[in-house]
Task: inverse folding
């Protein structure tokens, strides 16, 4: 049975999750806004890594790659999304626009490059 309810802030996260599921996004999920990402991951039934601790686009990309994130969601931050477009390992899959009465104006969806086991071991040893 599909989960159908509205999260505490009144945003229709099921609508966002439905749009994301049609994109075949990979788990685990991370997001620029902790609570919004948590709700979306719940409706997608995906592992949630949370919000990156880093603030610069380059550091965010490195952190997400090291954490083996599959997908990164950027909520209502066109400047961050555009900066991430320039980062190696980050590929914008889509920009979705949820139902207008329900919250974020847009969500930029990024696929995070997969890292091989050797690269993970090397990064952990530094």
Result:
């Amino acid at each position: 049975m599909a989960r159908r309810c509205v999260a505490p802030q009144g945003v229709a996260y099921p609508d966002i999750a439905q749009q994301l599921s049609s994109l075949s996004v990979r788990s685990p999920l991370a997001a620029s806004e902790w609570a919004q990402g948590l709700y979306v991951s719940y409706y997608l039934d995906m592992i949630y890594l949370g919000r990156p601790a880093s603030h610069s686009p380059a550091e965010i990309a490195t952190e997400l790659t090291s954490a083996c994130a599959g997908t990164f969601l950027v909520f209502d931050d066109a400047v961050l999304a555009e900066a991430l477009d320039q980062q190696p390992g980050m590929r914008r899959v889509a920009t979705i626009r949820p139902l207008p009465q329900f919250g974020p104006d847009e969500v930029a969806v990024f696929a995070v490059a997969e890292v091989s086991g050797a690269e993970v071991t090397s990064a952990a040893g530094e």
Remarks:
- Residues 26 and 111 are 8 Å apart (CA to CA).
- Residues 34-44 form the longest helix (11 residues).
